[in-house]
Sequence to fold (492 residues):
Amino acid sequence: MTETFRDPQGGGSLIVAWQAKAKTVLVVGGGTVAAGRVFNALDADANVTVVAPKLCAELQHRVSKAQITWHERAFEDADVDAADMVLTALSDVQESRRIAQLCRHKRIPVNAADINELCDFWFMSTHRDHSVQIAVSTNSRAPRLANRIRRQVAAGLPRGMGLAVEQIGRLRRRIREADPEPASSRRRMAWLAQLCDYWPIEQLAALDSDNIDSLLDAYVRQDDPTAVSLGARAGEHSGGRLVLVGAGVGDPELLTVRAQRALREADLVLADKLIPEPVLRTIACEIYTARKFPGAANEAQDELNRRGLDALARGKTVVRLKQGDPFVYGRGAEEVLFFRQHGHEAEIIPGLSSAVAGPGLCGVPLTHRGVADQVLVLSGADRNGGLPLVPPFLATRTLVVLMAIARLAQVVELLATTGHPPDLPVAIVERAGCADQRTVRGTIATIVDVVERVGHNAPGLIVVGHTVNVLSDAAIQDRYLDSSMLGLHSVE
Fold:
């Protein structure tokens, strides 16, 4: 019987992962393209030498950090003698050609930027996650399209893939140390292959030192890797799902579709104390509300974290529900880091931040052509409880201050000392997105008295700038606005 073998297609590149550690890579050129080549070489633990009369800012930084060796001059032929690889990134095409031909004569691999026919190899579009590297090549036909392909491939990878590879690498080394005989190679490979093919990536990523010890013992006994039980500790990391969800500004209809789905799928919701009741009424599962009061915030956060870890250990889906957007003064990143340290990677679902959506819901645009072209968002208190650092007044800037109504008088005084004029419009946006939302308007000079007279309904934020009255009839009298640009005006 004649076997049929596939024919080579041709036209491709021989794709390898070159071991560059401790090898010398020579980069000729000092611009941004050269900086990219240098970064790639450093990422592979190469020794990098740069030859160029001048360096861009990134390469200057690398020289200052002693990450590279720099020869401050033009290229000399003798520079290639100590190189294992040469990369040119020059605007002088003829010099690049000459260097490439010199390298080829000396049998040194060379890449000449933007001169494909002179390249022994090309750089690919790469995705890196720990030891996992995925490279996409279009054989220099369409490098921009390679970036798009790489992004789509990376988006489809299981969560924790890179960490899983690191942990399996640790286990593989331990097994080789325990059973180093060459004759055991087939047995080691077969056992690890079963483990890698059967276990979920997320569970492999969550292996810790105790788990690896247990797996090593299982290998020594030659237990079936698909039947190994790691006990309660492994259960902490497998099966449970953690989702960090932004609840938006308070109206359930303004929750994102993904947030609504996460809340439907949740077994436990850990909610901020300020989550509005209408949002909580959409949740069918158990809700634990953080009891954060002055003087007890840390204890309340510890209790919330403990409940989350307990539920994840039981394989539950836990939603951490935070007001607004978790990453806009919501300390969401701190919680991501906490759970990551305990082996759980959070899925992130952003929410509408009151800093941006709140003013808009109450008829206050943050930018407006000819009026404001930038927005600065500040917290009303720094981490030590002090007032924020406010830059000098700029007429085309809108200032949004969160969590500051209780110290409104202090904020206004601070604005006055930084050059903000007394007649600058100010709005207090209250309970944006709720049925009883309200906008209270005034100026730097009057807003404190106005709020004392009409009262305040928490939560709220402060908007300062000439956009405050753009959609208000009062804006027509504002000397900073062209009335032809105001459009329709709501009646206050």
